[in-house]
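ESCALATION

Customer reports they have been waiting on this structure for their group meeting. Please prioritize. Original submission:
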Amino acid sequence: MFAQNLEDIRPYVELTRPYLEFTAVAFGAVSGALHGKRRSFDFTGVVIIGIVSGLGGGLIRDVLIGRGPVLALRSPEMLIVAIVASLTGVLLFEPIMTRATRIYWVVDTLSLGLFAVAGLQRAQAASLAVTPSVLLGVVTCVGGGLVRDVLCRETPRVLLPGQPYTTIALFAGVVYMLALHALKLSPFTAEMLAISGAFGLRSIVAWRGWVVPVPPNLVARRQQRRHPPRAA
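Update from on-call: job pushed to the front of the queue and completed.
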């Protein structure tokens, strides 16, 4: 049965290593489960949010690629990984919830680079060009969190002012493509550079407190220049 499943998904993984996709799903599911616990969801709700966080980005990516059923449905092992990782996030991290914020940040940051590279590789396996491949890498990275926030009745974090989450995913994709095609490095080395680069960049962003600025109100600024406030 396992060999048959591998043959079914072979067209999807000809240019990828399955460990990367499974690792990304696992980290995403744990991150989602921790998010559910922080929202005080019940056991079932936490597991559902974990599964959605782990598989959501890949589901959106595979629908956009449009090459048959999505990978999560053609590979039952991936769904099992998401379920087990969600349960791990519920049970394993329960005794150390006092440090959940730091743990959540580390897991979420690692999943960021993993999802970006996994999505980009899947797009490359579908023979897409560089630009749409990088775009699908970003979609894979933010898609799970987007669906998670909608289910949690929150404004998706990627749409709110704050740290450049989407930009870091884009950075990871660009690093991977440059390392693989421009520098001719091995796929594994390119993966590690992209994942560590995303982790390092987000760490610097958090340390420096950088945020994505909101669009300026040009009309109000122009009116202020025309009618400056009078001195008291």
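Sent to customer with the following note: The longest helix spans residues 100-125.
Escalation resolved.
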